[in-house]
Amino acid sequence: MEEKTISTVNEFIKELEKLYSKNPARYHFYRGEENAEWKSLPSILRKTNLGKEKEYREKVLAEYPEEYHSLESIDVLAKIQHYFSHTRLLEVTANPLTALYFACAEHLNKNGAVYIYSSDTLLSYESDKAYMLAMLSKFPQEDQNNIRKVAIEFLEADLLINKSNINGLDPELQRSLINFIYALMRERSDFANFRINPAHLLQSYFVKPAYNNKRTQNQEGAYILFGLENDNKKQIPYLSPDAKNNNITSLKIVVDKEAKTNIINQLKILNITKSKLFPDIQNALFEL
């Protein structure tokens, strides 16, 4: 991943201009990290949470069933993410200055970073691709691993995942896949005659869920919905430009730790402030 270092808002904007001139992708989203050494991963793929996606989902839904009963799978994940639990969603923003704020807001003794993600695809919450990836959160890690193996095998063989092609699978792989398909069918009957491109289970996508809130609106938020190709051995391996099954490319801009306070002051002039991004009474009164 290519890296540049900036120390002012103006330098940051100039780097963005260079990016846009070189990358004609239709969509660009951004994520700010307070420490440039942190991995830009959704929480469920961090070491302490690996293999616990189904557990976290079930715990939240059991505690607050009334909050989720009417939501589609992708919006269930978005709402869980909003309340700071662990999902396969990575929060991003359409506003690069918002990401720059988050890169500078804390850890003033560490360089920050803004990750810039680019793709020609933005999924709606109604998309079958988003629906399939969100459905994975209902399954334990063993089943997810089995579905991943099938997807990779079928992708390499240039085959669709359909009724005729899954008959010869290893019984355990077949069991996991059929259970997954049945779960999809229970919410969307269109999957009864399924013909799944295996790449759609492996890739990651920008997605804009229907569930929204004031904080997400002010931050111009969206998500990267992670597929099954990630194995946590590398930092978002399939988001790099040369990755297999690439859908999203990435660039990293490092923010000089010595410039963080000055950049926050510059952003304040542009109305990028804590109270703007976190619209509650406490933050509003703090900035009076």
Concise overview:
The protein is α+β, with helices and mostly antiparallel strands and 288 residues long.
Describe the 3D structure:
The protein has 288 residues and is α+β, with helices and mostly antiparallel strands. The chain has one domain. It has 12 helices and 10 strands. The chain has a 4-stranded mixed beta sheet. The N and C termini lie far apart (41 Å).
What labels would you give this structure?
288 residues, alpha+beta, 4-stranded mixed β-sheet, 12 helices, 10 strands, 40% helix, globular
Query: In this structure, how is the largest beta sheet organized?
Result: 4 strands, mixed
Helix count from the secondary structure assignment = 12
Tell me the number of strands.
10
Q: Structural class per helix/strand content?
A: alpha+beta
Shape call: globular
DSSP helix fraction = 25-40%
End-to-end separation in angstroms reads: 41 Å
Which regions are unreliable across 5 or more consecutive residues at pLDDT < 50?
231-245
Quaternary state reads: single chain
* Count of distinct structural domains: 1
Along the chain, the helix and strand elements come as EHEHHEHEEHHEHEHEHEEHHH
User: Please, what is the average pLDDT?
Assistant: 83
Spatial order of the strands forming the largest sheet: 1-10-4-2
Tell me the radius of gyration.
20 Å
Strand content: 15-25%
Topology:
Elements: E1 3-6, H1 9-22, E2 27-33, H2 53-63, H3 73-82, E3 89-93, H4 96-104, E4 112-119, E5 122-124, H5 128-135, H6 141-156, E6 161-162, H7 171-187, E7 195-196, H8 199-202, E8 205-208, H9 214-218, E9 221-225, E10 249-255, H10 260-269, H11 274-277, H12 281-286
Parallel strand pairs: 1-10, 5-8
Antiparallel strand pairs: 2-4, 3-9, 4-10, 6-7, 8-9
Helix pairs in contact: 4-10, 6-7
